[in-house]
Amino acid sequence: MIRIFKIALRNLMRYKRRTLLTSLLITLGLLMVILFSGLAGSFKEMMIGQITDSNLAQMQIHKKGYVSSIDTSPLNLTINQKGYKKIEKMLNENPDVEAYAPRIKLSAMLSNFTETTNIRLNAIDPDKEIKVCPDVSERMKFSGSQTPDILLRPGEIIIPEKLAAGLKIKIKDSVVLVANNKDGSVNGLNFTVAGIIESILGPQGKEGYMHIKDAQSLLRMEKPEIIEIALRIKKFDKLNDVYKDLKPALAKFENKKGKPAFEIHTWEKLSPFSNIAKMIDIMTVSMKIIMIAIVLISILNVMMMSVYERVREIGTMSAIGTAPGKIMSLFLAEGLSLGLISVLAGNIIGILGIYILNIYKIRYAFGRQDNLLLSPTISFSELAWVSAIVLLVSVFATLQPAYKASRMEPVDALGHV
Amino acid sequence: MALVQIDNVSKIYQTGEVQVKALQDVTLSIDEASFVSFVGPSGSGKTTMLNLIGCLDKPTKGKVFVDKDRVDTFDRIQRAAFRGSVLGFIFQAFNLFQVLTTYENVEYPLVMIKNESASKRKEMVLKVLESVGMLNQKDKFPDQLSGGQKQRVAVARALVTQPKLVLADEPTANLDKKSAVNVIRLMRSMRDEFKTTFIFSTHDPGVMEEAEVIHTLEDGRLV
Ligand SMILES: Nc1ncnc2c1ncn2[C@@H]1O[C@H](COP(=O)(O)OP(=O)(O)O)[C@@H](O)[C@H]1O
Ligand SMILES: [Mg+2]
User: Fold this and answer.
1) How many domains does chain A contain in total?
2) Which of A79, A156, A215, B80 is the residue whose CA sits 20 to 30 A from B24?
3) Is residue B44 in contact with ligand 1, taking CB distance under 6 Å?
4) Could you read off the pLDDT of A161-197 as tens digits, one per residue?
5) Which B-chain residues 160-219 have CB contacts (< 8 A) with chain A?
6) Does any ligand 1 atom lie closer than 6 A to the CB of residue B214?
7) ipTM for this prediction
8) pTM for the predicted model, two decimal places
């Protein structure tokens, strides 16, 4: 076995330039996959992290039908106290749920006493919200350089930066919010601007924040009602499993017509970024397919040339009694070695490349955000997978030439010049 | 029974419309430990004859026995195994493996064909390299050797598996006169040392003289 690889390696060294070029090509293919997976993967992870940790949360529960009419922020599809209690009980009993927070989504008119504009607001219970979206304050600017202990007190509002800029509103300014409640009656309240928030991609990316109690009084709710419950689970990679647990549990709560009263969605259903994430996955797969094609074609090409150039040698091996299987394994070892050399080089350069990319952090802008820092990573299992694919394809590409070599008749092969 | 028995053997090559009778109704036998040469002009059927005895090819008609086995009925795999265990080969163009040293070339059949243990291999390779006088060149690669030296290595490679019979098709055709005679004499002394039967072909009268038995072929017939 060792001998077979020794002969294979010597034969590869015989055509140094060709071996080098081929393994360089495969190395590049592998490198492309490693770097792209690293970069795209970390971009995806970062964007998902931002969406789930600072904005949408990982899952949301609404009154049935809310998400399909989300654009109008309907105020009649609320969850009342009784419903909230029931859901709360269910969530408390689920061991996978880490935290949940009630929210009210509303749109209102924002006025700085001279100008008025539309604003969409996320009314939160700050203590609970911070457990569901631990990074919620990351995009917020406050009067001091630090985030206050209590994110938001009743009477305070946090305004999206574009609105603040447009209306020339500064922190600590007074503003008025005017809103229609679900019966159409109008109400207005005074607020102090406590902070400014950067917007991010997605349906809830340009919302301001206010206290849930204020929203309830602004909307003149006689009994406290809410619009959505945001959820965080203990292990994010179990998201779909937990979703599959919660969905039927929630479906047990029925309305008067005997239909499910509530609905639950994961962030993927709520954010358009899930489509971008899917695109990234598709691109990563495409990269891998391209890499497989590169490996397949280049190794097939080299090994076919090898067999053709060494017909007389193959004839000699066969004539002196080398079994066809041994001849085949000699060539397979050669193809595998070529793949192995490339895999080693690709891994070393790839890991080095990712390491360097992490030293010189990449800044990029996405949507309205700039100065995002990308820190590409690639998991060991991903590397192992990609490497295994390359090795497997190397052997596969060598099968045909190796088989051809093993089937050669010594008389014909020896006569070949 | 003789080591090699050729019974009424014919070999006809069919290329398109043309039929070439490379061998016609040849019957002969070759004794164990003999030193035999097939001679004759180019195209007379020497290579065809050696290929049939060497289990590299099958006759169109007739029977071929080598070492009591009827080899013309063997399939591909059987022939390969038979060549590896009973026969040794020496080629006109030496056919050493370029990427292997002298030592490794001689060791090759023991590793790739015979699966001998490492210690046994070493003993056998060194012994046969000593016999052909190439021990001092054991770490050189083929392209560092002269033609005569290469053929000595090839003789060693053919003998290292201790075959019953060594076949050599025009082993001296690529050598100068002096080396040619030396290689043939080496082969004969190997026969003396190991009792191995040697069959070679040549059209060189100087080389022919060294043979003990000469079979002459002409247009595929024994004369
Ligand atoms: N593979 C083949 N196909 C067709 N004709 C062949 C083939 N091999 C040999 N011959 C013919 O058979 C005859 C004998 O050839 P060969 O045995 O090579 O003679 P020698 O070795 O004595 O020169 C020649 O006429 C040659 O052209
Ligand atoms: Mg010939």
Assistant:
1) 2
2) B80
3) yes
4) 988 988 999 999 999 999 998 888 899 999 999 999 9
5) none
6) no
7) 0.95
8) 0.81
